[in-house]
Write a structure and sequence with these properties.
The chain is of the alpha+beta class and 85 residues long. The chain is 31% helix and 22% strand.
């Protein structure tokens, strides 16, 4: 499956325990997203367009109004990357 570099980066951070927090407008549409890593840092690569692509491909999902997390499909489709810790 073809996944862009930015999608890979966001999915990798989500697989490590990060989450995507979102804000909704009055009509219920998501207007702003913030990708937060496990350590609490904000990932600037996650834009609204990238969020919509990940959601459309079912790589991320939200349950009961919680922040978006990676799905099993998202974990299996992301390539392994070295952690720079």
């Amino acid at each position: 499956m073809n996944i862009s570099r930015h999608e890979q980066r966001v999915l990798h951070e989500l697989a490590l325990g990060g989450a995507i927090h979102y804000d909704r407008c009055d009509k219920g549409k998501i207007r702003e997203v913030t990708c937060v890593t496990r350590e609490g840092h904000v990932l600037t690569d996650c834009t609204l367009d990238l969020f919509q692509r990940l959601k459309r491909r079912r790589f991320i999902r939200s349950q009961n109004g919680r922040p978006y997390r990676v799905t099993r499909l998202g974990i299996t489709s992301v390539r392994a990357q070295l952690n720079q810790r």
